[in-house]
Structure formats: C-alpha cells, structure tokens
Amino acid sequence: MKHKKQFFETFVHGIFLLLGLVTVGCVLLITLYLIFAGIPAIREIGLFSFLLGDTWASTAQQPSFGILPFILTSVYGTAGAILLGVPIGFLSAVYLAKLAPGPVKKAVSAAVSLLAGIPSVVYGLVGMMVLVPAIRRVFRLPDGASLLAAIVVLGIMILPSIISVSITALEAVPKEYEDASLALGATPTETYFRVSVPAAKSGIAAAVVLGVGRAIGEAMAVMMVSGNAPNMPSLFQSVRFLTTAVASEMSYSSGLQQQALFSIALVLFLFITLINAVLNFFLKHSREE
Predict the structure, then answer these.
(1) For residue range 25-45, what is the model confidence (pLDDT) as tens digits?
(2) Is 239 helix (H, G, I), strand (E, B) or coil?
(3) What gap in Å lies between CA 171 and CA 166, rounded to an integer?
C-alpha cells in the first residue's frame, strides 16, 4: 500500500513537471520565433530608425517603418486605462468584499463575471456605436474615434480582472486582524483601508498586473474605437497601438512590410515582458518586507 502511494505521488509529480516544462517550452518557442522573424527587418531598417522613427507608411512607394507613434500610444493608452480602471476596480472590490449586503454583493459579482466573459469585439462594437459618437458630440470633434475612447474602453475591460482578484485577496485576510483593529477603537472604514488592504496588498498588486496585461495585449476593441491611424498620440486624435498595427496589416502584408510587423510583435513581446518583470520585482519586494 505504501509503495502504491509513493508511486502515485511520483506519477502525479511527474505529470505536473511535464506540464510545467511544456508551458516553459511554449514560451521559449514563441520567443525564439519572434526573434528570428523580427530581427531581419530591424537589421535592414535600422534599430533607431525603427524604434524612434515617427512615420509609418508601409505601403508607400518609398516605405517608412517608424513605430515610435505606436509605442507612445501603447504606453499612454495603458497608463490611462490603469489610472481609470485601478481606482474604480479597487474601491469596488473593497465595497463588495467588506461593505456590500449579501444580495448586492451577489448581484454585482454576477455582473462582474458577466463583464469578464464578454468578447472584446462586443466591447469594441458598443464603444464604436455609443462612446465614439458621445465623445464627438461632447468635445465637438470631427471624429470621436480617438485615444480617449480607447482609454475608456480599456479601463472598462480591465475592471473584471482587478475586482475579482482583489476581492479574493481581501476575503483571504484573517478576520482576527480586523477584530483586533476594531477592538482598539478603529472604525470599520479605517480597519478596511488601514488593516485589510495592506494585508492583501500582494493580491491587489497581482490584480493590477493582470489588468496591465489585459490592457497592453488588447487589439480588436481598441482597433474599433481608436481610429487606427498611425499618428503621434493625442487624446482627441485617431491613433494606432502596437497590437492594432500588427492586426490591421498582417492579412495583406508581404516582404519587408511583413517582417516589420513581426518586428513590432517582438517589440510588444519585450515590452510586456519588461513590464511584468518590473511589476513582479516590486511585488516580490513588498512580500519580503
């Protein structure tokens, strides 16, 4: 019986190890493929001309492959979505985890789960039919498809990840912490924000990391509301993100244009990897403290 149990434990351990190695192998294969597919275009165009060029005209008679507008747009769009979505998601999570009555929590949690399951193209369609015309009317613009519209849509799309993971982290805080704070005379609100939130900060930070990944990697919804024009980023002007640059031209690209799109994918991959590494570093540092 003991040998069977040991064999079963070893077998399960081997399965988990194999699945982990498969995951790591897939990441390595994607990395190597992007490197080998993207380096030739960067070598031909020139690294600085590619990264710092402000003009993208891939189909012109004399093509230009500068992706600085895409990089800046992705940075500004992601930062704006985080500034919009994180406070709303965080405060919603605190309310649902600690303050909301049972029926309200159940109804809102179901709505959050529904938001998480809606396809991105639906977000883009609603944004294109409702948000873009509203921005055009309110700000009196010729076209409401802009960086602002993309920020609002991305800010809404990251809410489910932030809210659900933050709720899980807050509900995992031992009740004894809150009871001790209340016994010392703190109000419930002070207890939640000065005891529960700091105790759950690693989980909340993980929720923010997921939100950042969702915002950076989104393509379809952003393409439908941003105007998809390769302009330098401006809040009320049509723009193009790194993701939408690849998605919008890959279907008809060839030659150097196609290689340049793979180079954009490589830059996006490195960009996401760098952001995740930095966020995980600070997350690990906060856990150690």
Answers:
(1) 998 998 899 888 889 888 888
(2) strand
(3) 9
Block residue for tokens 């076209």: 143
- What are the tokens at 209? 């990391």
Name the 3-class secondary structure at 64. Answer: strand
Give, for 250, the enclosing helix (H) or strand (E): none
Closest by alpha carbon to 217, among 142, 139, 272? 272
Two tokens at 115?
Answer: 């938001």
> Tokens standing for 85?
């979505």
Token pair 């929590």 is found at: 105
The whole-angstrom separation of Cα 255 and Cα 279 is 37
**What's the pLDDT score for residue 91?**
92
> Which residue, 223, 200, 173, is CA-closest to 73?
223
Contact between 231 and 69 under an 8 Å Cβ cutoff? The reply is yes
Closest CA to 279 of 199, 187, 182, 212: 212
Residue with tokens 């597919």: 37
What percent of the chain lies above the pLDDT cut of 70?
97
Residues 6+ apart with CB under 8 A from 252: none
Letter for the amino acid at 229?
A
Q: What is the DSSP letter of 231?
A: P
